Amino acid sequence: MAAWDLSVTVVDLGPDAPPVTLSVTSDLHVGGVILKLVEKTQIKRDWSDHALWWEQKQKWLLRTAWTLEKYEIHADARLLFIPQHKPLRLGLPNGITLRLLASFSSPVFQTVMGICRMLNIRHPEELSLLRPVEEKKKKKDKDSAEEIYDLTEVPLSSASRPCLYNGMPAHFADSPQMEAIYKMLSITQPPPAPEVIAKQYRPASVVDKAHINGRWLDSSRCLMQQGIQENDRVWLRFKYFAFYDIEPKYDVVRLAQLYEQARWAILLEDIDCTEEEMMLFGALQYHISKVSQSEPQLMSTSAAMDDLDSALQSLEVKLEGESSSASEMLVRTAGSPELNDYLKIFRPKRLTLKGYKQYWFKFQDTSISYFKSKEESIGEPIQQINLKGCEVAPDVNVTASKFLIRLLIPAPEGMNEVYLRCENEQQYAQWMAGCRLASKGKSLADNSFQSEIQSIRSFLAMQKTNAGSHGNAHAADESINTHSLVSPRYHKKYKAKQLTPRILDAYQNVAQLSLTDAVMRFLQIWQALPDFGLSYVVVRFKGSRKDEVLGIAPNRLIRIDLGVGDVVKTWRYNNMKQWNVNWDIRQVAIEFEGNINIAFSCVTADCKIVHEFIGGYIFMSTRSREKSDTLNEELFHKLTGGHEAL
Amino acid sequence: MEVQDLVLEEEEEEEEDSDKEDQDLDKMFGAWLGELDKLTQSLDDGRPEQPPQQKAPLRQETNMANFSYRFSIYNINEALNQGENVDLDALMADLCSIEQELSTINTKPNSSGSMARLGLTDTKVQTCTCLCSMYMDEAARQTSSHSLSSHRRTGSVGTVSEHEVKLLSILRMTECYCFGLLCTISVAIPVYVQEEQAAKLKAENIRVALEKIKEAQVKKLVIRVHLSDESSKTMMVDERQTVRQVLDSLLEKSHCGYSPDWSLVETINELQMERIFEDHENLVENLLNWTRDSQNRLMFTERIEKYALFKNPQNYLLGRKETCEMAERNKEALLEECFGGSSVSVPEMEGVLWLKEDGKKSWKKRYFLLRASGIYYVPKGKAKASRDLVCFLQLDHVNVYHGQDYKSKYKAPTDYCMVLKHPQIQKKSQYIKYLCCDDVRTLQQWINSIRIAKYGKQLYINFQEAMRRTEAAYDWSSLSSSSIKSGSSSSSLPESQSNHSSQSDSGVSEMTSSGHTRSQSVVSSIFSDAWRRGTQGEV
């Protein structure tokens, strides 16, 4: 067979080095080419990660046993000899950028698996990469100054699960720097400054939201094939909103990132919610940031300690459950803690012109009773009010020294409204804490009493700093601008100090949650929003003349009329018989049970993206059946690959 | 019905004519003492207590009954209205004796030997007395309108009224004390009354029993449960029991066929509304919301709407307007999809409902939406964008009730009304919200969607638990009769090409739409289980 010259550019020789020319025959296999090449460069190093990239055809020559003939490579082929793993700048949901080695040669699906393995995120199938939204020129300068956390030194491993050391993957335990990076991955970020939120891109309409979905990378092709270069920036995001088997013990990073993605989706109004829901999200964010500051060592306990901890915890719960009535009894007999003080009371329902009247109040168990004066408190109270099951709302203005506890007490005749006015912060925090516990049926003896007082006081402190000058926001590290907790819409609607009582109101229901529980609650409420999990794509239905929006959810497809802005039709995957993509005319056709056929072409995203979304969700729903940790990559590829899979 | 009516009854020799009900109570009392034993044991061992199943030996009961007085909470009003033979006079006598005792305690504490024994439970006696007297107040008021069955111990009405006077004086004496204690002290406590010459040993037994109660500190209520045939049952529940547990023991006692549809329904006559208690709810907690003079009733009855949501989920979860059929496997997948995940998605319920205006008899139309965070409405002149919605109410503190006959009561546009109120509200109030739907289907969809929003996954767990019990209640003997039928019905299952999870550990999907062909459903679920196992093997 005739020999011919094949020229290969070896990037490692330097940018100006001429291509290496090899004399080859067509029956030489790729492995042989590489061997010759390495010999010729005469550089001794580990070449094992290098492979040949065929520039014109945009493909890797990874099958080393294939001959050049089989690859149809001729003398005009421009081949590059480059490493398969290259550094990539990866934007995480929490806004932090990592620099790490990612595979540029395997399908993005596997690249994501590798990244997730390195970052200790389980269920990588739920995540994917997307091209970032272009940043404005002005920000570019700032970008260079942005801190990038380097993980390129982490050795590549193929183990499906990294071995854990001190509760984190071994490669993070190497040095304090690495440990710090892991901490950053696994701990939620402090609330962003309101200006940061305001500066971010916010989708204004469902069409805007649709545009982001055109940016997803094709998971069945590699990064090189999609024009991603070394050191390029991509975003890692949760793509499929079907989060399987969340286990706080193993999913520290996954949960933290999921929370961050959810938080930003809410702050940027990527997903709509009501004002009440926004306040609750705000309260949870406040609580999470506060608790994560106070218990930062969440993840650095070893697995064994985790087990012990959880065992102890469950034991505690058990004991609590069993002995609650007994312990209550003990407290009762042994003289339970009380609060005694002069407070002012007002009943807005009574038609009197009288304002607040002062009495001697006594808080015992779950009841408040009041007397004319301290001296008469041994006798019969004027009234006793049991607060069990009542609603408690704060009405506080620190600057105006207004400390009001509004009680809505259920009675057979309806709800009784009672206001209690406290003199100062100290008194308010105690009585408010008592009221809150009592409303849940807990007495002052409950061990959450002190922490309840603390959380009330810290919230009051926040109001104080908000009321003061905006400049010294860093004065007290406890303080958070409430504008950091809600979307910009509410920055305009309410001043920070108007927002505080509303968030405080929502906060009282979550103040006792642990960090993990608070994060989980946040995610649950997010998942319960009606629009949760919808990824939008602008499409043109067959036979229709106008653009419409297709919403792709974990369990269904919806059709949204842009004119009305309403869902006009819902199709569920349960009823889906098959879906096809005509790659020539780039049209998606879906058949549902009952002879329902729909077909559409995609406007804002490639039809491969839509195809992948649907196939991906079908894949996600099959997971529970296997109950194993091994990912059925082949099935995913079959369902999402399209013509690549054939 | 008033649950908390306390009645003092005297035993045995005075009551040759003790009716069936009393025997029930006897048994219950005996069983209860047996339970106490177990309870204290388990408390000592520190093990979680199992709800006691078996009854204590009968002999012990009668022994106890011979010398002891018995407190029970019992619906006296109800009994009087029904004209049942209630020992009111015996009751009076007992109260009288207690009053005497009280006065002895008051005047010369720790004087007699009998008092020493009583000393241990000093406060308890007082408490019981005041509780008892409080409830007797009710009974006493009723007596004037009710002709007393002449009984040999207390012959004349005059005696009764005399007792009544004394009774009321005790009542006044102790009432306020009583209010404070009502929630904290065990409600039903056997009291040792040193009236007759009872053996000291037996007295000691009681003392032990009392101590055990003190240890256990478990609230017990004797409740009256009404059946659909106008009869009623009396039973004891303790404060830890869930509705499911009470249902189970009722089912066991009444020998009616097991079905997940059996429900405990609270009817609030005064407000003309009712609610099916959810299986996981605490019964005692709910019943303690009733007022003393309450006309409320607790019904034990079959209600298909209790779990209709799970039998035909397609009619509730898909937000469709029209009812339709769905293949069983799809139902199962739908339920798993809705309830199986980490969060429960609330059905998309929205539409125009009538809202009763506060304090008026007029009803206004509004566009309401249900979200996990509560019920919202669209304000006038706004689109239904999430951010513009106005919160109508949040569901944490309210329960959803079914309003009855509101067309005539409140001039409602239709009789398909639901009510949202705090469980403690028992009388007309501006805090009760009334909503009216155009048709029964919409009403059921709303009620069930609100239940999902309020209870979430718990509802599904309840249903699965109920189904498990249904299956357990039917043994394999029913297999032969219906196996052919169900075999053929399940043959369509393997055609499934659904990519969705079909995992479910109960025969959820196999529940037939009627819900009454039980044996078949059980068998078919066995088949489908087997089939599922088979297919899992394939995968």
From TrEMBL, chain A:
One GO BP annotation is: leukocyte cell-cell adhesion
Q: Which GO terms describe its cellular component?
A: cell-substrate junction
Gene3D superfamilies attached here?
Phosphatidylinositol 3-kinase Catalytic Subunit, Chain A, domain 1, Pleckstrin-homology domain (PH domain)/Phosphotyrosine-binding domain (PTB)
Q: Is Isomerase found in the keyword set?
A: no
Q: Which residues does the UniProt record annotate as the domain PH?
A: 336-440
- InterPro entries in the record, alphabetically? Band_41_domain (IPR019749), FERM_2 (IPR035963), FERM_central (IPR019748), Kindlin/fermitin (IPR037843), Kindlin_2_N (IPR040790), PH-like_dom_sf (IPR011993), PH_domain (IPR001849), PH_Kindlin/fermitin (IPR037837)
Q: Does the keyword Ribonucleoprotein apply?
A: no
GO MF annotation terms:
integrin binding
Keywords in alphabetical order: Cell adhesion
- Lineage top rank: taxon: Eukaryota
Q: Which PANTHER family did the record assign?
A: FERMITIN 2-RELATED, FERMITIN FAMILY HOMOLOG 3
The similarity annotation says: Belongs to the kindlin family.
What is the official name of this protein in its record? PH domain-containing protein
Species of provenance: Sphaeramia orbicularis (orbiculate cardinalfish)
**Lineage, top ranks:** Eukaryota, Metazoa, Chordata, Craniata, Vertebrata
TrEMBL record, chain B:
Q: Where in the cell is it found?
A: Cell membrane; Cytoplasm, Cytoskeleton
InterPro entries assigned to the protein according to its UniProt record, in alphabetical order: GRB/APBB1IP (IPR039664), PH-like_dom_sf (IPR011993), PH_APBB1IP (IPR039665), PH_domain (IPR001849), RA_dom (IPR000159), Ubiquitin-like_domsf (IPR029071)
Q: Where is the signal peptide?
A: none
User: Sorted alphabetically, which SMART domains does this protein's record hold?
Assistant: PH, RA
Q: What membrane topology was assigned to this protein in its record?
A: Peripheral membrane protein
Q: Where is the Ras-associating domain?
A: 219-305
Q: Which residues form the PH domain?
A: 346-455
Q: Where is the composition biased (Polar residues)?
A: 510-523
Q: What Gene Ontology terms describe where this protein resides (cellular component)?
A: cytoskeleton; cytosol; plasma membrane
Regions crossing the membrane: none
User: Which one Pfam family would you cite for this protein?
Assistant: RA_2
SUPFAM superfamilies membership: PH domain-like, Ubiquitin-like
Q: Where is the composition biased (Low complexity)?
A: 487-509
| GO biological process, any | signal transduction
Q: Where is the composition biased (Acidic residues)?
A: 7-24
For region Disordered, the annotated ranges are: 1-27, 40-61, 487-523
Top-level lineage group = Eukaryota
Q: Which UniProt keywords apply?
A: Cell membrane, Cytoplasm, Cytoskeleton, Membrane
The similarity annotation says:
Belongs to the MRL family.
Can you name this protein? Ras association (RalGDS/AF-6) and pleckstrin homology domains 1
